[in-house]
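PROTEIN DESIGN WORKSHEET
SECTION A - STRUCTURE
LENGTH: 277
C-ALPHA CELLS:
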C-alpha cells in the first residue's frame, strides 16, 4: 500500500511544479475528506536532474517554491536523474553517482521528450544540415536548415529559445503574418520565391518574453515578470489570483473562459468531483 500511495513527478520545470502542487491540493482538500486515514500515508516526490527546480525563475522564487513544498511535505530530489522506469518502481542516479530503485504507484513524466516520428523523418532527409537529434534546426526566419520551403516552430524547432508555449504562440503569429504579407506582395508573380524573399523583405523573428507564472500549491503562485529593464518577482496568495486572471485571459474564447471559471467556482463550493460513471 505504501508503494501505491507514493506518487512521483519527474521534471522540476513549471509543468512538474504545477502538477505536484495541484496533486497536493487534491490530496489535502478532497482525499483527506473521503479517506482521512489513507491521506496521511500518501507521499509526493519531485525529481529534477538540475541543481534547482524552476531554473528559468529568479533565485528568490526558487527558494520560495522549495520552502512551500517543504511545508506541504513534498520531497524534492535535485541533481537526481531517472535512468529507468518499470511498472512498480523507477531507478535514479543519485548526486554521488550511485543508483537507487524507488518503489512508486504513479509516475508522471513532465520533462523532455524525444521528437515525433515525422520530425525525425524530416531531419533524416536533410542529415547534412540537421545535426541535432532533439529537433529541427532553423534559422532566424524559422526556415528549416538544409530544406526548401519548409518552416518549423514550437517544440519541434531548435530556434535558440526555450520550448515554451508563449514562444510557439509568438512564432506562429509572426510566421502567419509574414507568409500572408509576402504572398499578397507576390500575387502577380507566379515564380516568386517566398522562401528567399522572406530574408529580403522581412526582419528576423525575435521573441519577446511576457514573463513566467507557476502555481505551486496551497493557493500560492509565483511570478517573474519583465518591467522595462528589470524583472518584478512576486509569490503568494495575491500572485495566485493574478495567475488565475492571466490564465483566463489566455483562453481562446468566451465559452472556454466561462467553462473554466464555472469549474473553479464549483470546486470552491463543493470540492473536486472525483466520482466516475
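SECTION B - SEQUENCE
RESIDUE ASSIGNMENT:
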Amino acid at each position: 500500500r505504501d508503494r501505491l500511495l507514493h506518487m512521483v513527478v519527474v521534471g522540476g520545470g513549471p509543468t512538474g511544479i504545477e502538477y505536484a502542487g495541484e496533486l497536493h491540493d487534491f490530496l489535502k482538500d478532497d482525499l483527506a475528506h473521503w479517506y482521512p486515514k489513507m491521506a496521511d500515508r500518501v507521499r509526493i516526490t519531485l525529481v529534477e536532474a538540475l541543481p534547482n527546480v524552476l531554473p528559468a525563475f529568479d533565485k528568490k522564487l526558487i527558494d520560495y517554491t522549495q520552502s512551500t513544498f517543504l511545508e506541504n511535505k513534498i520531497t524534492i530530489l535535485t541533481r537526481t536523474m531517472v535512468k529507468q522506469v518499470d511498472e512498480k518502481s523507477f531507478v535514479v542516479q543519485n548526486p554521488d553517482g550511485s543508483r537507487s530503485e524507488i518503489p512508486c504507484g504513479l509516475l508522471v513524466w513532465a520533462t523532455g521528450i524525444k521528437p515525433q516520428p515525422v520530425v525525425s523523418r524530416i531531419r533524416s532527409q536533410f542529415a547534412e544540415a540537421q545535426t541535432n537529434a532533439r529537433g529541427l534546426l532553423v534559422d532566424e526566419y524559422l526556415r528549416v536548415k538544409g530544406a526548401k520551403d519548409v518552416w518549423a516552430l514550437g517544440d519541434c524547432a531548435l530556434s535558440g529559445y526555450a520550448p515554451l508555449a508563449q514562444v510557439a504562440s509568438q512564432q506562429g503569429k509572426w510566421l502567419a503574418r509574414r507568409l500572408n504579407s509576402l504572398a499578397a506582395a507576390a500575387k502577380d508573380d507566379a515564380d516568386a520565391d517566398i522562401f528567399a524573399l522572406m530574408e529580403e523583405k522581412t526582419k528576423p523573428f525575435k521573441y519577446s518574453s511576457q514573463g513566467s507564472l507557476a502555481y505551486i500549491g496551497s493557493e500560492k503562485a509565483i511570478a517573474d515578470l519583465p518591467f522595462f529593464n528589470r524583472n518584478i518577482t512576486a509569490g503568494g496568495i495575491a500572485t495566485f489570483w493574478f495567475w488565475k486572471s492571466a490564465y483566463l485571459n489566455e483562453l481562446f474564447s468566451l465559452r472556454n473562459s466561462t467553462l473554466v471559471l464555472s469549474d473553479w467556482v464549483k470546486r470552491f463550493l463543493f470540492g473536486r468531483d472525483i466520482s466516475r460513471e
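SECTION C - NOTES
The mean pLDDT is 92.
DSSP finds eight helices and twelve strands in the chain.
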